Amino acid sequence: MPELNSASLPSRSVMPGATGVLSAYRRLIAQGKIEADTAQGHAAEALDKLAQALQARHETREGFFSRLSKRRPAPIKGLYLVGEVGRGKTMLMDLFCREVAVTKKRRIHFHAFMQEVLRALHKGQGRSERHEDPVRELAQKVHEQNDLLCFDEFQINDMSDAVLVLRLLDMVMALGTVVVATSNTAPPDLMKNQAQNRATMRPYLEAFGAHMQVLTLEAARDYRRGRELDAQTWLVPDSEENSAHLRQKFETETQGSAEPDFVSIGSRRVPVPFCKGDVAWFTFEALCGDARGPADYLAIVARFRTIFIDRIPALVPDQYDKARRFINLIDVMYENHTNLFASAAAQPEALYQTGENATAFEAPPHVLRKCVRATGSAEGRPPAQR
Ligand SMILES: Nc1ncnc2c1ncn2[C@@H]1O[C@H](COP(=O)(O)OP(=O)(O)OP(=O)(O)O)[C@@H](O)[C@H]1O
Ligand SMILES: [Mg+2]
Questions:
Q1: Fewer CB within 10 Å, N- or C-terminus of the chain?
Q2: Cβ of 240: how many Cβ atoms within 10 Å?
Q3: Contact 373, 334 (CB under 8 A)
Q4: Whose CA is nearest to atom 29 of ligand 1?
Q5: Does ligand 1 come within 6 angstroms of the Cβ of 184?
Q6: Three-state secondary structure call for residue 82
Q7: Does ligand 1 lie within 6 Å of residue 325's CB atom?
Q8: CB of 182 closer than 6 A to ligand 1?
Q9: pLDDT in tens, 215-241
Q10: Residue nearest atom 9 in ligand 1 by C-alpha distance
Q11: Closest Cα partner for 215 from 26, 37, 42, 36?
């Protein structure tokens, strides 16, 4: 399972009080990049403490006598940051992951981690070397590759996946890997919508919760919201200038540190030109110009909360395939309350040009309304529906 540590970040040495999570948070405020928020300050303190504990453990483990004794280090509880949308959970976790002086660390969207786990278990089926429990074997590998795992958007939808991943994480954490997670749902409520499975799930959720300190981030407001209310979300026309403007918005959302990545769908990989956390950038061509289908869109939308689409063209009837894909994508985004920022040749309702063969493609009016709704997403995604 080589991917599991491929995104490990380089280690940095931290002088207590000189750098660290709390000082990095305060620096952002001092530089005017973010507003001071008391609740976020408390969360930054908790993350800072955790960073110091991890660092101290790392130093002890590297010590001569400790290496001789091979004693397992004292357990450190992870941190589960829960709160409503836009409260700064992801921002704080990213800050933590960047600052903490741990070499074997990995930050990954929880959905992507689940996919890796399922793939690894599927691949390993029937060839367990020691005829052991395959989940236990995988847990050992994950632990060896990661001292720290940071999961963005911890969420559980499917009962069988949930049992697997919670068992795995319980073992990984019992071995000493520390988990930090952001979520809109507290651990006991993770299966709230599935009354019939709650009793079965309870022990797994309790075991998971026992490794974590749950911290509710009651930040003053949804910081994303204010920005979106001000922002123009649909830039017309699809000119160089608007493309650059859109890019600038994207840079602001991603603090200028987005990178190429991919979304896995089974054994396939859909490239994402740039993304950071739950924000992604695509060109229209990359999303709808190629042979993409509903499964791709579902996976993309499951991973990303905010999607930027550059250069949506006016669609003529002989571009039926692209138009159909675009409608499909908008449908999926609408269902999931995904935020959309776009540069486009025309306003949504004027995207579909009429021509000689106009009847060959008639955009259903409800889809166009959705398109407008999706772009007018200032109200964001209600937490209950995530
Ligand atoms: N104190 C702050 N001042 C200004 N902007 C902030 C502050 N905290 C967070 N932000 C910004 O608000 C946006 C939302 O923050 P973030 O993505 O971390 O929220 P979240 O709690 O993870 O939300 P979600 O539950 O939707 O994932 C980000 O662009 C972030 O940089
Ligand atoms: Mg988040």
A1: C
A2: 9
A3: yes
A4: 253
A5: yes
A6: strand
A7: no
A8: yes
A9: 999 988 888 765 543 456 788 888 999
A10: 88
A11: 42
Confirm if 264 and 112 have CB atoms less than 8 A apart.
yes
Q: With b meaning 16 or more CB within 10 Å and e meaning fewer, what string describes 119-148?
A: ebbeebeeeeeeeeebbebbbebbbebbbb
Kindly state the tokens that stand for 130: 């020691």
Per mean pLDDT, which range of 25-29, 178-182, 364-368 is the poorest?
Answer: 364-368
* 380 C-beta closer than 6 A to ligand 1: no
User: Could you tell me what percent of the chain has a pLDDT over 90?
Assistant: 39
Which residue puts its alpha carbon closest to atom 31 of ligand 1? 91
Ordered DSSP codes for 238-277: --HHHHHHHHHHHHHHTTT--EEEEEEETTEEEEEEEEET
Structure tokens at 57: 């453990």
Token pair 């050992």 is found at 140
Query: Token pair of 187, please?
Result: 């651990």
Binding site membership of 345 for ligand 1 (Cβ less than 6 Å): no
Q: Based on the number of CB atoms within 10 Å of its own CB, is 82 exposed (0-12), middle (13-18) or buried (19 or more)?
A: buried
Instruction: Compute CA distances 61 → 72, 75, 144, 177, whole Å.
Output: 9, 13, 14, 14
Is the beta carbon of 319 within 6 A of some atom in ligand 1? no
Domains of the chain with CATH codes: 2-216 (3.40.50.300), 223-385 (no CATH)
Helix axis angle, 320-335 to 365-375, nearest 10°: 60
State the residue for tokens 């002088």.
15
Residue nearest atom 11 in ligand 1 by C-alpha distance: 223
Taking CA atoms only, the protein residue closest to ligand 1 atom 5 is 34
Which two three-digit tokens encode residue 292? 């993409």
Give which of 151, 138, 147 is closest to 184, Cα–Cα: 151
